[in-house]
Amino acid sequence: LAAHFTAKRLQGQHLLVTAGPTFEAIDPVRGITNLSSGKMGFAIARAAREAGAEVTLVAGPVHLATPRGVTRIDVQSARQMQEAVQSRLADASIFIATAAVADWRPAEFADQKIKKDGSGEVPAMAFVENPDILAAVASSEPARSGKLYCVGFAAESHDLLKHASAKRLRKGVPLLVGNIGPATFGKDDNALLLIDAGGSKELPHASKDVLARQLVEEIAQRLALSHL
Ligand code: CTP
Ligand code: CA
């Protein structure tokens, strides 16, 4: 019954969500990535769909089934993720960035597999910074005029409240969600710290599916308030 009560809280909204890691190619057979599983982003996509939203999920390389009723766009690199996000932004009313976007990519892509030359020397590798997808979306016109509600996530190893509060301001988002607890990557459960202009609030330890539903409800409440 409770589920039915809150079931259509995002009716009429269009959610765009990023999830998973990105993969930054070095050569045709290698690249750099990270251990993000995409589970939190996929759980949010599912919960938002169940709450009545139209949902577009931009996913890096993950091993997860597409939630029912969700439109999925698969990408590999941060730049592809940014392009996919930009191409769907016009329709969106909520943007949630859960992706663990690689901060840097190799400065150059080698067309052919890099081979050992037998000398024992290791290749030197230069990196360049990837675009900050969330920061770009949060500073876009629809976000600044209040037509697009932006939510960021933060992975911090220490001083979560301090770093995540600073990150919220730096990214220019109304709501920043911190992962509580050391290693959340790949796990089925988590605990979240929600930080907005009014302060912070904890969503205690639970499965990512439960947390996703709670987060959807928190976002629905904030959207309802902003339209009063
Ligand atoms: N993010 C993004 N594009 C990037 C980097 C991060 O969209 N190139 C988003 C993430 O999806 C997340 C938020 O920004 O919602 C914070 O990501 P995080 O990695 O915690 O922060 P960074 O700004 O990259 O800083 P750092 O990794 O140094 O803590
Ligand atoms: Ca980062």
From TrEMBL:
Q: How is the cofactor bound?
A: Binds 1 FMN per subunit.
Name the keywords, alphabetized. Decarboxylase, Flavoprotein, FMN, Ligase, Lyase, Magnesium, Metal-binding, Multifunctional enzyme
Would you say which domain of life the source belongs to? Answer: Bacteria
Q: Which cofactor does it need?
A: Mg(2+); FMN
Q: Which GO terms describe its molecular function?
A: phosphopantothenate--cysteine ligase activity; phosphopantothenoylcysteine decarboxylase activity
- Domain DNA/pantothenate metabolism flavoprotein C-terminal: from-to ranges: 10-221
Which Enzyme Commission numbers does its entry carry? 4.1.1.36, 6.3.2.5
Q: Give me the reactions it catalyses.
A: (R)-4'-phosphopantothenate + L-cysteine + CTP = N-[(R)-4-phosphopantothenoyl]-L-cysteine + CMP + diphosphate + H(+); N-[(R)-4-phosphopantothenoyl]-L-cysteine + H(+) = (R)-4'-phosphopantetheine + CO2
| Binding of CTP, residues | D103, K113, P131, D132, I133, L134, F153, K167, K171
Please state the pathway this protein functions in, per its UniProt record.
Cofactor biosynthesis; coenzyme A biosynthesis; CoA from (R)-pantothenate: step 3/5; Cofactor biosynthesis; coenzyme A biosynthesis; CoA from (R)-pantothenate: step 2/5
Which parts of this chain are annotated as the region Phosphopantothenate--cysteine ligase? 15-228
* Assigned protein family: In the N-terminal section; belongs to the HFCD (homo-oligomeric flavin containing Cys decarboxylase) superfamily. In the C-terminal section; belongs to the PPC synthetase family.
What is the annotated role of this protein in its UniProt record?
Catalyzes two steps in the biosynthesis of coenzyme A. In the first step cysteine is conjugated to 4'-phosphopantothenate to form 4-phosphopantothenoylcysteine, in the latter compound is decarboxylated to form 4'-phosphopantotheine.
Instruction: State the protein's name.
Output: Coenzyme A biosynthesis bifunctional protein CoaBC
Q: Which organism is it from?
A: Comamonas guangdongensis
Gene field: coaBC
Q: Which residues of the full protein are shown?
A: 181 to 408 of 408
